[in-house]
Design brief:
about 210 residues; 2 domains; 8-stranded antiparallel sheet; two-stranded antiparallel ribbon; about 35% helix; globular; T6SS-assoc_VCA0118
Length: about 210
């Protein structure tokens, strides 16, 4: 039932947009609605309506209140699908995953090992006006702390972050359930995450 409702909703949107779309794009969009997997449908629409492959990635002007780890994570995300990088003293080891089905600059799911401390966080292009946010990543919801002037929403540091990160390593995707619209409903593709975080885990000793 949900899959049929999803297709009907997208077909209604495509009908409204049809006068604005080229015939070939419209045909490809219709094919996206036939994908059996929700994650595959999101990725299909993401590829079709996202930033064209031959267009430069959007450049965000650096601002003083955006932390170095935020800048490093978004610079890494703009480079492409490579997920892990050692930024040295700037932000340590960083693993970044971009949210599917959103326009750049996209929210990020990040795992960081800096000064031998592990931290799991969500990063957003625009700051949140909150101190704490209730978040669930497919498990029991918990309070995440808003850091770095609202641009970083942290699940915690040390053992709490490691426990949550380990739980994600065996999943193919994750839906974010959150108490704020900017985070609620975000979807991340976790395929290959276990391999990507291997050097970070070695660096932080877990």
């Amino acid at each position: 039932m949900k899959q049929g409702s999803f297709r009907l909703a997208w077909l209604a949107v495509l009908f409204l947009l049809a006068p604005l779309l080229r015939a070939d794009v419209l045909a490809e969009a219709r094919q996206c609605t036939q994908e059996p997997s929700r994650l595959a449908r999101l990725a299909c629409f993401d590829a079709l309506f996202g930033t064209p492959a031959d267009s430069p990635a959007p450049v965000m002007a650096p601002e003083a209140h955006r932390s170095e780890r935020w800048r490093q994570a978004y610079a890494q995300a703009q480079e492409g699908p490579a997920r892990v990088r050692d930024t040295g003293d700037l932000a340590g080891w960083l693993v970044t995953l971009s949210a599917l089905g959103t326009q750049p600059p996209r929210p990020l799911l990040t795992l960081q090992c800096h000064n031998n401390i592990t931290e799991l966080a969500l990063m957003v292009p625009e700051p949140l006006a909150a101190e704490r946010v209730r978040v669930s990543l497919g498990s029991e919801a918990s309070q995440w702390r808003v850091r770095d002037e609202g641009f970083v929403i942290s699940a915690g540091r040390g053992l709490p972050a490691i426990r949550l990160a380990r739980a994600l390593l065996h999943r193919q995707d994750i839906d974010v359930v959150a108490s704020v619209p900017a985070l609620d409903g975000l979807v991340f593709d976790l395929a290959g995450l276990a391999e990507a975080v291997a050097p970070l885990r070695q660096q932080c000793g877990w």
